[in-house]
Specification:
alpha/beta, six-stranded mixed β-sheet, 32% helix
Amino acid sequence: LSPSLSVTFSNAGHILGAALTTFTARENGRTLRVAFAVDLGRENLPLIRDPDLLENIDVMVVESTYGDRLHDSAEQADEQLAAVVEKTYRRGGKILIPAFALERSQEIIFLLASLFESGRLPQIPVYVDSPMAKAVSDVFERSVSYLDDEYMQLRGRIGQVMHQKWLKYTASVEESKAITASDKPCIVVSASGMCEHGRILHHLKHGIENPRNTIVIVGFQAQHTLGRRLLDGERDVMIFGDRFKRDAEVVALNAFSAHADRNELIEYVRRVNPKKLYLVHGEPEQRSALATALKTNGFKDVFEPAQGE
């Protein structure tokens, strides 16, 4: 950036192309290395490589999204998904998956491809009802150098993972409506991931009162969103201004989170071993809980900057 300031990008292991950013400043014979890990991924996530380990860091700015809770192991994601799909398929229902168009949708496609290819699940129709998810899936297929060994092995066996015969990307509103109107068992992956807008709301409107269906929560749900209300077990919800009784099953698959949990954050910080820590990117309760846990684990200089600091 200048003779005295450089920046280095490292794999964050969070979403495709996400980076950990390290700034190295040199001035008056002194060197300072400041790292930003504001979207730190997890080890063993589907598709993408694990986070790189940063070295020789003086100051680290780190996220605290899940600073007070633990996830299921990322390696359990395929088994969790297989169980809910099989159960719903047997009772003749639809599997409705609100998913972020970037990364989460592609992870689900990858895991379904693995499950179908191995015979652990029968091939059933899968619809990705999100034009953005379609565009991002094409980017994944053009960016295989970013992806992990498991993806490359599956790709070697079945070809382009994001473009299989059982997988249909819907382009038009008419195609989306046809999926909604059908009562045949299928899997629908659609944005938005927190059920606040987008085509998933139409699928929920027509499917939320059917007890054969399952709504599968696979990502973080912010407070006051429809996804959070479903996750919290509310039975009466508003969609497009109308009230619906939630008779569909709601299942949360906690292995899918792309953010490191409390123990993973602590372990990563322990391995990097910075001199000072600043916690950001987390609701107040999560941030404070992580600060307390880090101090308990021997880190003395842990700061929770207020807005504007």
